[in-house]
Amino acid sequence: MIATSKDSKTVVAGVNSTPDAPATVLIGAQWGDEGKGKWIDSLAADVDLVVRYQGGNNAGHTLYVDGKKIVLHQLPSGIFHEGQVSALAAGVVVNPAQLVIEMDKAAEFGVKLTPNRLWLSGRAHVITPWHIFLDEQRESRSHGAIGTTKRGIGPTYSDKAARTGLRLGHYIKSETRTRWVKQMRELHPEFNKVWADRSEAWAAFEAAAEKLAPFVTDAESNIRAAAREFKKILLEGAQGALLDIDHGTYPYVTSSTTGAAGACQSIGLSPHFIGQRLGIAKGYVTRVGAGPFPTELHDEIGKTLAAKGQEFGATTGRPRRVGWLDAVALRYVSEVNGLSGVILNKMDILTGLKEVKIAVAYRHPELGELREMPWDTEVLDACEPVYISMPGWQDQVPSSGRISDLPKAARDFVAAVEEHIGTPVLMVGTGPNRSDALYR
Ligand code: GDP
Ligand code: IMO
Ligand code: MG
């Protein structure tokens, strides 16, 4: 299914892959929660290695294994396949205690993670109770709150950029870990108080070091070697392209490079190793946290979609904001990331609506009609969507099979999406399980 073999020139759902490229990257093409976990888990069946390349435990990737739900925050969503390696690359930020909890949870599902099966980058930066404190503090301001997950993501990436961060390879050694704590005490007068107030969290932070130590390695070098050997690699994005630090709706973004290029930078992997660039989008849009959202619905349809789609954050439990599919934003994401194909997910949730809408342009009170996504978040905030409206479909979508098996109105919807984003829809999601998928 995933195109990767040098000899076979295999295809992903009907689209020619670059024959020399062993890696496929899958990114969220909206504001996160598009269904990456389910699709990574499903596509991972055909690969040798799955790599998470950015973000931390702000992510919440839901999958169902033998009908049982599991939400992964730190581990790649491919761990449930035997004989396969999972890795966290340099661009990821790691909450050590959370990672240990998750590894234990995976063990309950029968997944025994050994150092041969899980590579943790020594270069990845570590989220500490100090960073979580800073995130909470910044979010409590009356102005300028982003609506973060309060997992310490922004402050950890800030320390990385300021060159005062703690890398995983240094965290696992008590000497370098203690040196970092000492440096923080000198740099920040408040650090001692946070140390005293959060003693339990610091104890868990310390305790996890020994457990993670055997897994910490030069993950990037291993991944490059796998790429040279033409192992099939799936690069797992977290968050979404509209939450990208540079190309998203700044400042209402996360602090990492969520797009396809982020995978190359995180691993130190040449772009020529990447064949397919897949973007996953829901047939509508959701967003958690603050920031512009032109197609947001505040009516009964929005409430229906939220309830039917169970749109609550997998990490924080916050209700997700819901709106119509935004083809202006999706076309922009496709262009920024050179998407070779789109997965249109949760199409089953749209079933039963009388009409379905797609935003194909924006209207700004002063600038008039805009066809391109504006870079300025304030401009975007003032935009109203220009919609096309299409008839909905009442028949259930088939849970598996081909896209051509969809009811006619749903096929027309898919075709309209393709037309307006200029990118083929290769797969359609029809339910939360691995097998709930339609292919071209
Ligand atoms: P992620 O962060 O991109 O991995 O997505 P989340 O796990 O946060 O949110 C996606 C939600 O939709 C989860 O509850 C999934 O179980 C569910 N889901 C995924 N794909 C489908 C689909 O095609 N149809 C339905 N109904 N639910 C889906
Ligand atoms: P997955 O991988 C949806 C959002 C937060 C907030 C902004 C910044 O499950 O799709 P942060 O804690 O990263 O500093 O928060 O980004 N956000 C997500 N929204 N899905 C996610 O991850 C998200 N991770 C962060 O709600 O608006
Ligand atoms: Mg999620």
Describe the structure.
The chain is α/β, with parallel strands linked by helices and 440 residues long. The protein folds into three domains: 23-124 and 215-278, Adenylosuccinate Synthetase, subunit A, domain 1 (Adenylosuccinate Synthetase, Chain A, domain 1); 126-213, Adenylosuccinate Synthetase, subunit A, domain 2, CATH 1.10.300; 281-439, Adenylosuccinate Synthetase, subunit A, domain 3 (Adenylosuccinate Synthetase, Chain A, domain 3, Alpha-Beta Complex). It contains 14 helices and 22 strands. Strands 11-9-7-4-12-3-13-16-21-22-20 form an eleven-stranded mixed beta sheet, sandwiched between helices. Strands 14, 15, 17, 18 and 19 form a five-stranded mixed beta sheet that branches. The chain has a two-stranded antiparallel sheet with strand order 1-2. It starts with 10 loop residues before the first strand and ends with a strand. The model is unreliable at 1-17 (pLDDT under 50).
Offer a few descriptive terms.
Adenylosuccinate Synthetase, Chain A, domain 1; Adenylosuccinate Synthetase, Chain A, domain 3; Adenylosuccinate Synthetase, subunit A, domain 2; 14 helices; binds 6-O-phosphoryl inosine monophosphate; binds magnesium ion; 440 residues; disordered N terminus; alpha/beta; five-stranded mixed beta sheet; 22 strands; globular; binds guanosine-5'-diphosphate; eleven-stranded mixed beta sheet
